[in-house]
Amino acid sequence: MSVETIVEMNLKQPGNKIENRGRLLVKCPDKPGIVSVLSSFLLKHDSNIIESSQYSSDPENGTFFIRIEFHCENLMKKSKQMELDFKEIAANYSIDYYFAYGNERQRTAIFVSKEPHCLMELLWEWQNGDLDTDIVVVVSNHEDARGLVESFGIPFHYIPANKDIRKQVEEEQIRLMEDYEVDLLILARYMQILTSDFVSHFQNRIINIHHSFLPAFIGARPYERAFDRGVKLIGATSHYVTNDLDEGPIIEQDIERVDHRDDVIDLKKIGSRIERRVLTKAVKWHLENRIIVEGNKTIVFH
Asked: I need a labelling partner for 229 at 20 to 30 A (CA). Which of 40, 148, 176, 240 fits?
């Protein structure tokens, strides 16, 4: 089944009226009347609010965040004028904002090494129509996942990688991302460290899954280290990638209880289940524009 066929199937899911669905994300200094201003703006443009979530870091001198999902007939014909009209509001209230539209599907690349469980979860969710994106390419430093990926009709690129050839590898990867016009990169257990040059090309657009409940056991072999420490809880963390290893803004985390009966193999099996669901949630929330990055933290509107 090809990428195009699956995309067409996904767009035909019941109730998927994407052409008239919009999202508005706002960040600004908190002050009275902002919600009223935003609501009045949408009303003026004949838009009906479907979902609204907001947060203030401090009602007196804090920052206000809001995500509004709305329906508007003939939205794509009106969108340019809406954004033009919103500029004046943004200037008056010092608003950082972002409009997203339901029919503008993001193009996603997945990077993977040898362990396929996170990759498989993402492909299943995508095939079922539960991941609102076009997975346009999978990149790996091993050949192990080629058969799986190509069975979905997705291009697979094998690019051997190690620290000695990292610069030329990343140059090839960046070129590949540009060729495929990629919006989002997912590191689905891609076991290579990315350089600052690579990360700078995709700021807040690389999502990683770390097989540890960060900030515990940063770096390699976390399950072995957790076992040696005798932990009673293990977890996984999905975060945006920054130049600080495993210290980017956290999107989602989860845990499960373990005990002295569980050896390293058991911990890895339990951990893989956690990794799959944590990464999938983080990717879905990013694709649904539910995340605002604030410094090294995230505001996530579930």
From this structure: 240
